[in-house]
From TrEMBL:
Domain YchJ-like middle NTF2-like: 1-90
Cross-referenced Pfam families: YchJ_M-like
Protein name: Preprotein translocase
Organism: Actinokineospora xionganensis
Length: 91
């Protein structure tokens, strides 16, 4: 989760796509260059331990766009494939 937030913060589309599960991965991303991700709060998680194959992370990601600030609150689902955690979806 933290690595994906960092990738959003620096605009690393290649990493974001590679860390997205193939069943839900978009063909391309259109990141907004005017949006700055400023902080990540992990609220909670379920599973996702060393012996799990699935897990969720609830988080708040704070951003700034011009003079406006905002928060994205999401509960993301991840799955482990070949030893790597992949983002599946969020609600």
């Amino acid at each position: 989760m933290r690595s994906r937030f960092s990738a959003f913060a620096v605009g690393d589309e290649e990493y974001l796509l590679s860390s997205w599960h193939s069943s839900t991965r978009p063909r391309e991303l259109d990141l907004d260059p005017g949006q700055r991700w400023t902080a990540l709060e992990i609220i909670g998680k379920t599973r996702g331990g060393p012996f799990d194959t699935e897990g969720t992370v609830e988080f708040r990601a704070h951003y700034r766009e011009g003079r406006t600030t905002g928060v994205l609150h999401e509960n993301s689902t991840f799955t482990r494939e070949n030893g790597n955690w992949l983002y599946v979806n969020g609600s």
